[in-house]
Design goal:
19% strand; 6-stranded parallel beta sheet; alpha/beta
Length: 188
């Protein structure tokens, strides 16, 4: 089994969540690239990785925030299961305030995030979620200060949704998520 971890906006392919996943599933089983800020480049890279890995191993995609949005797109496109952590369901709206000069929190890369980038994100929006109910697992921190966790839970009504009390957008319940996910794997 392999896990492809997709980080969020202005983040990178390393950090606490990835460390938890590597500890739980072995480092060699967790792929966590640092992705570009342009949505078309991101999707191109992720599609390449998914196609390469899913042919050889059972693949699960984990995505946080904007990474959750991309993970949902990849699940629909490739029918590969995904775990969405505080996912963005409408990044072309929620990232509107980020248009302009940016600096990646982890890599210190400076760039300009544009309205065109927001428009490109709309190309990866999934209109009909019904066929994905058995493939998508959603984990939310109730006190996410950036994305409305209750709106997200409603969006994924009928899916496997776990909302933890407290927490924040960085998601403080990785240990609990991994325990729950391992139970899901055992039941399959």
């Amino acid at each position: 089994m392999k896990i492809l971890y997709i980080h969020g906006f202005n983040s990178a392919g390393y950090g606490d969540k990835i460390n938890y996943l590597r500890e739980a599933f072995k480092p060699r089983n967790v792929i966590s690239p640092t992705l570009h800020y342009d949505p078309e480049e991101v999707v191109s890279q992720l599609e390449f990785l998914v196609e390469a890995v899913k042919e050889k191993d059972k693949l699960y995609i984990f995505g946080t925030s904007l990474g959750g949005f991309y993970a949902l797109y990849l699940t629909e496109r490739f029918k590969v299961p995904s775990v969405l952590i505080n996912p963005s369901i409408d990044p072309y709206t929620s990232l509107q305030k980020q248009v302009g000069p940016q600096k990646n929190f982890k890599t210190d890369e400076e760039y300009i995030f544009t309205q065109d980038h927001l428009e490109k994100l709309k190309n990866y929006y999934i209109k009909d979620l019904n066929s994905l109910k058995d493939l998508v697992y959603v984990y939310l921190d109730e006190e996410d200060e950036l994305l409305d966790s209750k709106k997200t839970a409603e969006y994924f009504k009928g899916f496997h949704v776990v909302m933890y009390p407290g927490g924040n957008h960085r998601f403080t319940h990785m240990k609990e998520l991994i325990e729950d996910f391992k139970k899901i794997l055992e039941a399959k």
